Amino acid sequence: MSVRDARRAAGLSQEELAERAGMSARSIGDIERGVVRRARTASLIAIADALRLTERDRIRLLNHHRGAGSLPELVAEDERTPRQLPPDLPGFTGRVAALRALDGVLDDGPPIAVIDGAPGIGKSTLAVHWAHRVRDRFPDGQLYVHLRGYGPSEPMSAEQVLERLLAGIGADVPVTLDDRIGLFRTRTAGKRLLILLDDARRPDQVRPCVPTGPGSLVLVTSRSRMRGLSVRDGAFAIGLDEFTDDEATDLLAGMLGAERVAAEREAATDLARLCAGLPLALRIAGDRAADNHGRSLATVVGELTDRAARLPTLQAGEDDMSTNLLAVFSWSYRALSPPAARLFRLLGLHPGHDLDRSAATALCDGPPDLDVLADAHLVEHRGDGRYGCHDLLRLYATQLAEAEPDASAALRRLFDHYRYTAKVAMDAVYPHERHRRPDVPAVPTCPLPPGDEAAARAWLEAERLVLTEVIGYCAANGWPEHARDLANTLWRHLDTVANYRDALAIHGDALAAARETGDRTGEANALHNLGAALWRSGDYHQALERLLEALALRRSLGDRAGEGDTLTNLSGTHWRMADYPAAEDYLRQALAIRRELGNRAGEAGTLDNLGVICERVGRYPEALSYHSSALEIFRSLGNRSGEAAALDNLGVVHQRLGRYAEAVTIHEQSLSLCRAAGTRVGEGYALTNLGSAHAGAGNLAIAERLLREAIALRAEVGDQAGEATAMTRLGMVLTDPAAAIALHEKALTIGRRIGDRQLLVEVLNNLGEATGDATHHREALTLAEATGDAYERDRASRHL
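-> structure tokens emitted (800 positions)
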């Protein structure tokens, strides 16, 4: 039986058959005219499915176009045992854990196993591969039916599935569903059959097809989670995730050769990322690299880098729509209810990599049924109430959202939600600065109860990356007010938790938005915050440029409070550069402004910083007085992070005076407060200084543990100066001279790179003591005399 004979018998045109089979009319015509000498098995199966052929006619069709006997896995006309599995995929790779889990089903497992996952994730490939591995365990045969759950044609009914199964075991097919179920159960009782039901949409397609009694196994693949089969029928479920980078690279190596992939390892990793670890996308991309002589993996990566072109590029051709990624995604989308389809489109508007239920509520302007999309594997539940999807599905949702009439209103609701919720969170965590945050309209979707500090901290951490993405989107896409307000709301938290990388991105975006709209106040705020992030991350010269711009702008605007803040950050930058006279001058200007405005918290911070300057230049009684005054004010205000900083600085002065036991007690109080307040900057300082105090007291093992912890924390947050300080102090504790010298030299390299003279003078003295080389002490002495660092000057002099 040829395709032309079968099509005409069904009364269909080539165009009608092509639409049902998910193919092009040209491909149907090429098969019928013999242009394609050996049609692809997958194409012929799709045509047979579309024509709803009996098992006998399917075999005749396949043998006609592929050659009689060329499909050994398909039952021949004179055979009694069905062998219907599609061919195994050559070079199958990955899915080790899933294969192991399926193997476990064979030993006293349930009679149904379900493999579910997103479109293109490789469910059918895995099912067929495993079925071939275990087919000898099922001597009575293997049956296969493609249920057409998702595709261009309607899903098969239970009656149609049973018709195929009964024909496969050589039984006549009764008319009614009940009779078919009864006959199927009778004919399969006591047999050991493997039944692969591919691409199911609903449990009712599967339940009538489960044999009674032990011995047989029904293996189901579906884009839906098939919860009904798990709950009611006890089915064993395996959910497939995207490939890891290693699994993706192995797949490409199987297609292109291990040597070629090894030679372009970086491009292969990039390709895995651009394909979101999706096996179908990887195979299409790998085929593009294999099919074009001279085309490197890097070239394919370049073709896929353009987000707008990525999905159209990821299709293998018109002859088989199952290898067209857009078509594969669309079949899942078209199966959604109208509310679920709208939700999926609106999720495509979201600029972040994931979201929680409250953000989805803002997008949809009502309760979102995210679990429906999760069950369809169009989004995934990522724990803690968050949902997201891989990048290719996000691209698809974004393309669908382009025609969404409610797009602008939905984005406004979303950005209003983030702006207000961020304010509520910041007010709970940093209540003493509530008056300094933008006044923004309340929204009903805020999930945080007012004043709940623990919930607020958890929300800020969970939304950290999303807020960065949202601010970047707002700045670049016509929502400058939201970019400005979010940046001005979040700056304190970013600084406190030492999230400098995100701070640089956020404040850079806010600066661009402010300049684009002529918002001079917003520009001044962004310059100030950007300068602070640059200072904290060790880029002192860039920090000074931004802060001086901010100072001039704030003075021209008459912003006295802002002027005081910027003067303080200018002082901090000069302090790190060991320019103590300039640092003290800026602080005294800031102190006058803060006292003028009655800003008690600002006054305390300035006094504390003046104490640090005094400690550096050897004015220890003044330092103790400043730190004690700051501590008293911070405690009266209930400002725990300020109290922790004042305590830590007070402990350093006690170390300078040789009072190590007192210093240990004070630094321990500071560390405890920092951890309770979530102040990672302060925690890094407290760990480093507590380690130094223990070293001074002779507790070297404790000092080593604390300093190693400090190095890890300060490296994690990107505090280069702090990391190098902890390194060189660890070098002073270690008993291995070579290890100690290596740490000092690494710290010296960092100090020279970032131009931190305060750090350099300490490291040079430490290196001189470790090596016995007076040259280091001479350089340290020169630096200490130039900066006025009395403590390190005296250290250097003792060795010369």
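The two ends are 101 Å apart (CA to CA).
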